[in-house]
Design a protein that fits this description.
Blueprint (H helix, E strand, L loop, with lengths): L17 E5 L3 H13 L3 E5 L2 H9 L8 E6 L7 H10 L6 E5 L4 H9 L4 E4 L4 H11 L6 H4 L3 H8 L4 H11 L4 H8 L3 H14 L5 H10 L3
Parallel strand pairs: 1-2, 1-3, 3-4, 4-5
Helix pairs in contact: 8-10, 9-10
């Protein structure tokens, strides 16, 4: 995404909500903020997790209608560190973590720790906007999205042994190719099992599936 550079936060009081964007790459910050502002959101640009934490302790300490988009791997505090610190301070804002291909296992840990969702690079504009819109829906915090243990156990009982095995591998951060290679299956077969798992578990997203696994200690 190539957009003109933005050098200041763009408050839009009448918009649907405020998005705190955290990334150490200025070009990514500019691009994401431009995209979100064009869709009516107010944004804040933060070059580090520390900058956002300072902001939330200052002028925006009382703000409630907000969410966070953060890169996972950054100098200093990582996106996972930021998530932990927000929870420690009692500011469990809905959080979208952006991750590179090799960071999927860490992203899984982030979801189990309370992240609302994650996007894997490269991602499209529509995926970002859809994820942010979901975070502003009522009850979108990770704590409220966490399913009950009994409900998850009932859904797990509908899985075949192979589907359960694939689910364990998926929520463990393995790719379809890795799962296939370890079990002497084709990637297409693994994808078919994975699709059935999503349907039977009634998981609308990968993040939702990880939260279900976390609810039963998987």
């Amino acid at each position: 995404m190539q957009h003109p550079s933005r050098f200041a936060d763009k408050p839009l009081p009448s918009g649907p909500g405020r998005v705190h964007v955290v990334d150490d790459d200025p070009a990514v910050l500019d691009s994401l903020c431009f995209l979100l502002e064009a869709d009516g959101f107010s944004t804040s640009r933060n070059a580090s997790a520390e900058e956002l934490l300072e902001r939330l302790e200052g002028s925006e300490a009382a703000a409630t209608e907000a969410c966070v988009i953060t890169d996972l791997a950054m100098p200093g505090q990582s996106g996972l560190d930021l998530l932990d610190e927000l929870r420690r301070r009692g500011r469990s804002l809905p959080t979208l973590i952006v991750t590179g291909h090799g960071d999927v296992p860490t992203a899984v840990r982030a979801i189990k720790a309370g992240c609302t969702d994650f996007l894997q690079k490269p991602y499209g504009d529509d995926a970002v906007l859809e994820a942010v819109q979901e975070m502003f829906k009522p009850g979108a915090s990770a704590d409220r999205l966490r399913p009950s243990r009994l409900a998850v156990q009932a859904r797990l009982a509908t899985l075949s042994p192979r589907e359960l095995d694939v689910m364990r591998a998926v929520v463990g951060g393995q790719s379809n190719r890795e799962i296939a290679a370890e079990r002497d299956l084709s990637p297409k077969t693994v994808e078919a099992h994975r699709s059935r798992v999503m349907v039977k578990m009634r998981a609308e997203s990968f993040a939702a599936l990880v939260r279900m696994a976390s609810a039963v200690g998987m």
